[in-house]
Amino acid sequence: MPLTQSKDILHTHLKKYFGFDHFRSQQESIITSVLEKRDCLVIMPTGGGKSVCFQLPALIFEGVTLVISPLIALMKDQVDGLRANGIPSAFFNSSQSGEEQQDILDQVAKRELKLLYVAPESLAGLSPILNQSHISAIAVDEAHCISSWGHDFRPSYQQLGFLKKTLPQTPIIALTATADKATRQDIVNQLNIPSAQQFLASFDRKNIALEVRAAHDRVSKILRFIEQRPNESGIIYCLSRKSTENLVGKLKNSGIKAAAYHAGLNFDNRNKVQEDFIFDKTQIVCATVAFGMGIDKSNVRWVIHYNMPKNIEGYYQEIGRSGRDGLPARALLFHSYADVIQLRKFAEGAANEEVQIAKLERMKQFSEAPTCRRKILLSYFGEFLQEDCGNCDVCKNPPQFFNGTVIAQKILSTIARLKESEPTGTVIDVLRGAQNASILDKNYHQLSTFGIGKDISWNDWQHYVIQIINQGYCEIAFHKNNTLRLTSFSKAVLFGKTEVRLSKPVDKETKAAVEKEQRAKPIGTNSLFERLRKLRFQISLEENIPAYLVFNDATLKELEAERPTTEEDFMQINGVGQRKLEVYGDQFIQEIKDFQAEKTKKKQRKSHTFNDTYELYKAGKSIEEIAKIRKLKSTTIFSHLAKLYTDGKEVDIFQFVDRAAINQVAKAKKELESPDGLKPYFEFFEEKMEYSTIRLALSVIEKENMA
To answer: What kind and span of H or E run contains 67?
Structure first.
């Protein structure tokens, strides 16, 4: 087949079956290599389009493409997604009867399937079709599972090396979202594809905002976070089963639809939690790391880590489960030294203990970083980011440094007077002069440093202690009940020979930040996006498939922006393929038309009500008289006049508002950074300026800015 012709087929299939007009970075090169029967190793971030790299070639190959997937529970979801796109697919696993499995083998023999998903444990059942005439290609998904260097090693994956020996001419494509150099080498060695062409895509998920907060009071912070996102799906990762259950209880008490997912649940319960989440019946899942691998749910808008992950690979893969559709997403990590201590204990005695501890240290450094977090994250995977990202908490709130030598001396002096025998919490209690039983029983209240730090909060002291540890002026003796010890560098600080630079605590929960978040309005219940979302949900219930398999959020956003009302225009939307146009096009186009018609009617009614006010104003009626005639509040009439003035109507606005008030409002607008609504202004002026005055002043400011 000529190169130009094959490229045409690739682009035609991309639009017809997947709904996209263009390939993402490296996809076309990977697909071409697979079609040329070359082995490939693909490292591409979650949401980067790995699946298309083997699904599209499968449409062109004559036989079936075998997909090795680690989780039986996800195979149905993946196959449903392919079938929704018109691609004949099936899965083969132990949950099926012998008759069902034989039927699948028959379909493969008759070349009726293009993709067949199978777990490593079920490969033996495919022996009748494991030959060159039936299998065109093999995709090993979540390939990091094969390596003991990887963060999610699974022994069952280590048998996969036989595939290349059995089918030497069949291309193998190994895919994963996260793998460092050691893991990548281990993958190709164990799969017997040492000459595989390696494709390493950028790890930069720009749409995910990164943030780390101190772990104190995290439950209330999580509740506030969720309350501002009432319709958004999210995942909260916890370190233990107990934490997931406790947190779910607190979320449910606040009226939030949440469920726990962990290894302690039986298969049916885990499957139900996962299915309810995929089908948007459960908003939030609180889970251990067992949850999320392979889930293609594209509308997860945020991921929270209740506890610190044990390594950067795991963290990166878990946050990558949000924002797969490319729309803005958030990753919030709560960090505490208690997590570090717990994770160190988990690593003790492991065969690769040193590797685990080293990776944990890198994770800790990321959490405590005073510089752009995305730079650190990308550098871990060997990628250099020249400019700060501007989309992490450090970039948005750069730390302020000061001479913290005296604070450091107080900490080190207290450690010395405690004879290096107490952990961080006790050191801080002594500094703050705590009167608890532990302090009094040990007579620590008699130490000379007792209470010398009363003026600094407990959390701020913790912030400073962590920095002192990170700079090497003291250390945690993990093998001695996590006691704080002095180091060889401590003496220089204690005797004033070394200046210690510390950063001020960044209060990410300041009153201004909280108020701004509280003012953030969720998507309107009658916005076009929300109406399309409800239509999508209704269709998903009728067809018994996850809502995002109808269309993902990014497609709905584009439909909201473009508002296509013909099949030709509808087909131009990303995510709309030929089959989805045929199956869903009429319903979505009609919903858009209905919305447009209702909006036009509403606009006409609104224009009519403004004109009625204007006619009465031109007739010389006072505000009170217009309000009485129109049976409206005077504040509403002022609002009408402000809008009429902005629109260029002849309204003597200065009859109702003076220049001094306008200047005050202009100043408030600048200080409040152009807030939404009038309430922030009302509160700014301590409720001493009327809403109507604020509204009129803003209309003058708006018109003057337009001039």
So the answer is: strand 64-68
Q: Say if CB 548 and CB 19 are below 8 A apart.
A: no
Helix-then-strand count for the chain, H and E: 31, 17
**Beta-bridge partners for 566:** none
pLDDT tens digits, one per residue of 646-683: 888 899 999 999 999 999 999 988 888 767 778 888 88
Q: Which of 289, 33, 16, 23 is nearest to 139 (CA)?
A: 33
> What does the pLDDT read at residue 410?
96
**pLDDT at res. 532:** 94
What is the spatial distance between Cα 52 and Cα 63, in angstroms, rounded to a whole number?
Answer: 17
Phi then psi dihedrals of residue 67, to 5 deg: -115, 115
Nearest CA-CA partner of 424 in 306, 337, 505: 337
State the DSSP code for 392.
B
Same domain, 496 and 541: no
320-368: per-residue pLDDT in tens?
889 988 899 999 999 887 888 889 888 888 877 887 888 898 898 899 8
Residue type, 68: I
The boundaries of the domain holding residue 478 are: 401-503
Number of structural domains found in the chain: 4
Q: Is 513 within the bounds of a domain?
A: no
Residues 533-555 pLDDT 10s: 999 999 998 888 888 889 999 99
Q: Which pTM value belongs to this model? A: 0.69
CB contact at 8 A, 279 and 539: no
Task: Please answer whether residues 62 and 109 qualify as being in contact, where contact means their C-beta atoms are separated by less than 8 angstroms.
Answer: no
pLDDT at 479 over 80: no
Dihedral class, residue 593 (left if φ above 0, else alpha if ψ from -120 to 50, else beta): alpha
Computed from CA positions of residues 252, 258, 259, 260, in that sequence, does the dihedral angle turn out positive or negative? negative
CA distance readout (Å), 123 to 99, 141, 341: 17, 14, 40
Output the pLDDT for position 392: 94
* Chain segment 606-619, per-residue pLDDT in tens: 667 888 898 899 99
Q: What are the b/e assignments for 565-589, b being 16+ CB within 10 Å? A: eeeeebbebbbbbbbbbeebbeebb
Whether 661 and 693 have beta carbons less than 8 Å apart is answered as yes
Q: Strand 208-214 vs strand 172-176: parallel, antiparallel, or unpaired?
A: unpaired
Could you tell me if 579 and 670 lie in one domain? yes
